[in-house]
Amino acid sequence: MEVEKNSSSTDEEAQQEGDEHGAKRLKGCTIAAKAFSCWACSQPLRPPIFECPVGRHFFCSPCRDQLPGNDLLRSYGMEHAVQSILVDCRYAEHGCAEKPTYCDKSEHEKACKNAPYFCPETGCGFVGLREELLDHLTGVYHGWPSTAFHYRGAFDLRVVQPGVHVLHAMDDGQLFLVNARRAAAPPGLAVSLVCVPPCLKPTGFGCTVSFSSFRRHRSTTTVDELRPLRISEWPPAECICVLPRASPDGPDDDATDDDAGVALTITIEASDTESDEDDS
Questions:
Q1: What is the pTM for the complete model shown?
Q2: In whole angstroms, what is the distance from residue 147 CA to residue 167 CA?
Q3: Residue 127, beta-bridge partner list
Q4: CA 191 – CA 185 distance, rounded (Å)
Q5: Which of 200, 191, 251, 196 is nearest to 221 (CA)?
Q6: Rounded-to-integer distance, Cα 185 and Cα 264, Å
Q7: pLDDT along the chain (280 residues), means of 10
Q8: CB of 113 closer than 8 Å to CB of 98
Q9: Among the record's GO biological process terms, what is one (predicted)?
Q10: Domains and CATH numbers, the chain
């Protein structure tokens, strides 16, 4: 393990200090991240970890499966080492007290509840907590309509004109954005659905969207993994469906003109919802 010591540090600063996690801190020291990265893909090592016969090169499990020869050995020592390195979350200054292992730092930060949320609207510099963003989007600032829902429960959303609709998961507070924009071919409204990061379920979200624009017709789209919102790519170019203009002979008795819009039936499911229920 490569350790670099700060030459200006005093002996007292280099002493080991304990913390509430029972770990020891070495003040005035830094650990070379490369020493705990896969030799093939350079990603942080996580169990199971494998090493070459001479013990100089370490590999993650996916890379090991792609290497010829398959003469690598399980490295239990390195596995213990990477699981012993605790680091601060990048959002510690926002209130996160978690200390994930070095190999789990990236996954933790993707779903950290203390990560800041950003407004996607062009020219709006709002940054805040999830609850604050919900109020910002649906309140006096933007006034976007919103719908509360539960995972795995179908709900209807009538799309009448271009615009943004906020979806709010009652299960955990996760936010989603539905954006409708005009489409030229076929004529209608192109609808996109994205989750607002940080995503509270690191395993991701899937959805099923269906609609009927005329009698005896139903179009269904299933997305295994919803894309996260990217501020630089808002509004999204990709869509999950294109809604044609409502037909006068549509399934709804009150759908007599284009102003009635088209009703989307949406089901959003967290990838680990079923496993959570099985464990309970």
A1: 0.66
A2: 5
A3: 118
A4: 13
A5: 191
A6: 20
A7: 40 48 62 86 92 90 86 92 89 89 86 87 90 95 96 95 96 94 86 87 84 84 92 91 67 47 92 52
A8: no
A9: protein ubiquitination
A10: 3-110 (3.30.40), 145-279 (2.60.210)
